[in-house]
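Bench log. Compound arrived from synthesis this morning; before running ITC I wanted a structural hypothesis for how adenosine-5'-diphosphate sits in the protein. Inputs:
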Amino acid sequence: MSKLRFKAVTESMNRWPVQVEESGRRSEMFGRNVFNEEQMLQHFTKDALESVKGAIFSGSKIDRKIADQVAEAMKGWAISMGATHYTHWFQPLTGATAEKHDAFFDLLSDGRALEKFGGGQLVQQEPDASSFPSGGIRNTFEARGYTAWDPSSPAFVYGTTLCIPTIFVSYTGEALDNKAPLLRALHAVDDAATAVAKYFDKTVSKVNATLGWEQEYFLIDKALAHSRPDIVLTGRTLVGNPAAKGQQLDDHYFGVIPNRALSFMMDLEKECTKLGIPVKTRHNEVAPNQFELAPVFEEANLAVDHNLLLMDVMDKIADRHNFKVLFHEKPFEGINGSGKHNNWSLATNTGVNLLSPGSTPMKNLQFLTFFVNTIKAVDTYEELLRSSIASASNDHRLGANEAPPPVMSIFVGEQLSNVLDELEGVSKGKLSPEEKTELKLNVVGKIPEILLDNTDRNRTSPFAFTGNKFEIRGVGSKTNCAKPMTVLNTIVAKQLKDFKKEVDVLVNKKNLKKDEAVFNVLREYIKTSKRIRFDGDGYSIDWEKESKKRKLSNNKNTPEALQVMTSKESLELFKVMNVLSEVELRARQEVELEAYILHIQIEGRVMNELVYNHVLPSCLEYQNKLTENITGLKSIYGTGHEKMTAAQSAILQEIILHINGLKKECDAMTDARKKANTIDGTHKKAMTYCNNVKPFFQKIRYHSDRLERIMDDRLWPLTKYQELLFIK
Ligand code: ADP
Ligand code: MG
């Protein structure tokens, strides 16, 4: 065994679970580190409270004087919580979060020291932001960007820092982050959904999109993870022969959580609870060392922040437990990768889930309205929704028969399919009293409150209705949920706006009753969005053919999937909904393409390193052993005794074959990379990386994995799957 591998394996074997002290009731601990409503009540004046609440509820501005008061209160609270620094916490287009800490500590001109934090520092900061991706929005001469406070997501103390959630925009006002467009999309869907919800209940004045994510991840021993350059630099294994035992026995899913992992989870949940992240569910996932964590759902902006914070907290707590968390969508070949289902719905300020069937025909008509409009929105913009979950790492998963295919479709289940079919048969225009009664009592009225058929059973559907919410299943485990949430809420907002226009025309110009008008428009939508509904096996070849007939997009890789971001329809959509301008959209597409190129480029370089610095030298050593052995035997027994060295020669030949293969493919990949680097135009370059560079990875891996199978274990340099994947 190589020295590095030996050290890592022995170290990991000697680890005991870190003891986590008993912690008492979670409900008492919940939100302890958050400047939440309770803190506001305690620390704010009446004016400040009203002003901040107004900002949260309707986005109204907070004036400077009030901001000073708020800052003073926050500072006092944060210092009492042990904070020494503050930071604007934001989401640059890298997909992660960013922070730059400043101390409260300041010096007066007379040399005295004090703790300072005013409204100015709370509301706006100007980080030197020229090193964040901007897709060309910020030219260097105006490399300024600023962060601005988002009062709808509460500040929190994390470690010794007061973190203030912020948006990040350029000096000229363009969004440079994932939060600003999300907030705009949420605002759009609030407006549109509130207007439609008022058809059914006049008292509704706000609709919040809700999000409940389900985070999957792998836990790997830290020493073992660090012994693999590919895991350290790319977050996944680029080579590695699958262990003899993987997930085929189905013995990990919902199995007993290993001690070490459990103690990590307990520690993690404690920290999350203090930070106000309502974590609820933990369990083993399908693959060995794979786990899932899910919270209670929340308002979407807060849920996105909480998911990003969670990923950061997980990294830190894992370190304390000598683990490394892998969020990559496909860290290991041969076993499942990780995703992050996004459960989504719309909730009114009156406490109603608009995607939940109710007990009366009227409530069900409301449910059907939002249900059918969502289907219609996804049908119209299916390709755009696909683009929002595209990334180099998620490409490994989408369509890999463990995650949904890259073809978007919606699963609604048998019961609701029947309801939609019946509604489709409703006659046009005015309805006779009999028709109305029939509809209300026997179709709409019959939708049960609990939909038995709508379980999670169809795991192959990328967009499934699961009883009282839709679930986007293709989101990658690493992805910032803000991206799919921005698109989904924007398209639903647009759809609801169009719907309202159509209904109003029927009511005002054609004299239809409101419910008749709603039925009429929904019927048309059911007809025209039929192609997106599919309850069958999304993995099957038949569906691939069928979906092509239905003219659904099937973008198998990121550069292809990103194209639609700047189509005429997308530009128009984001513009009319005030979510992203053309400049912002083009910049985002550029950033995503760049990220794709860089990821593949880095993987290519690491692949070279693995082959030339690790695998080849070890194989050559083994080759020497074999040749020595063969010449030794020959010198003793002389020629004519070839049988004596037949086995050794056969192994040697296989090794030579794969060594040659390894070098050949590796060099060809390097050439392809060099060529790709000379290409102008980001899209073309990304396509070239995708089609001409990436395919070599599989070829190189094949030779390396074959060598791993036949090599002397003591000489194999890289920590093996079997060692990485079975924590105790
Ligand atoms: P599972 O999908 O594992 O069977 P559930 O359906 O109970 O489990 O919930 C899965 C996730 O869906 C949870 O994270 C939960 O918070 C979220 N969820 C439940 N209801 C809603 C809703 N109305 N809006 C958004 N997310 C929701
Ligand atoms: Mg689920």
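What the model suggests: The chain has 25 helices and 17 strands. The chain has three domains: 31-176, 186-580, 594-724.
ITC booked for Thursday regardless.
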